[in-house]
Design a protein that fits this description.
alpha+beta; Immunoglobulin-like; five-stranded mixed β-sheet; 28% helix; disordered N terminus
Length: 185
């Protein structure tokens, strides 16, 4: 029983470790990093891009804070392309209006921009403000993998694995206590 418990805990640890590693090195940035409707900003590819390479830029709106953005997989609503210059850099100007996303932006959040090329993929965020207020973060259950802006299913699997392991330990201890009572009395 303890061997099975150790195996479940090892699997849960591996799932959680895998969900927090392997994040792409940020080779893009947004300047300025925040603004509201009508804002202008520049997306810049700084390093690691191949000269002449076509980079696909994809745009969406997310509720997740920057630390959880790597877990976001889509959907993306607008696609643009840009070509890397001789020095492996590129830039793309953006004006936040109704052409960027297919719905009105009425609440604070993040405009996520994924840059995909042959050698790398990065995710950069622009903080969208409403009346000077920034995003409040994800919904309360998002860290468990539920709702918009969820942090991915690895957290859910880890939570389920730990719950099952704890249930197994309780069942084992309860069974031992019952055996002792039945043999003692």
């Amino acid at each position: 029983m303890l061997t099975a418990l150790a195996g479940v805990l090892a699997i849960a640890g591996a799932v959680l470790h895998q969900s927090t590693t392997g994040q792409a090195q940020q080779a893009t940035f947004v300047s300025p990093g925040e603004g509201g409707a009508g804002s202008r900003f520049q997306i810049v590819g700084e390093a690691g891009w191949t000269p002449g390479e076509t980079i696909t830029l994809e745009f969406t709106f997310v509720d997740v804070p920057p630390a959880q953005a790597e877990a976001f997989a889509g959907p993306f609503y607008r696609t643009e392309q840009v070509t890397a210059l001789r020095d492996g850099t590129w830039s793309f100007p953006v004006v936040l209006n109704e052409d960027v996303l297919p719905f009105p932006l009425w609440r604070p959040g993040y405009i996520a921009i994924r840059a995909r090329g042959a050698a790398q993929t990065t995710l950069t965020l622009f903080t969208y403000m409403v009346d000077g207020r920034g995003p409040q973060g994800p919904p309360p259950l998002a860290e468990f993998g539920f709702g918009p802006g969820d942090s991915g299913h690895a957290g859910v699997l880890g939570t389920v694995a730990l719950f099952l392991a704890a249930t197994g330990v309780l069942a084992h201890v309860s069974g031992r206590l019952r055996m002792r009572r039945s043999t003692a009395g």
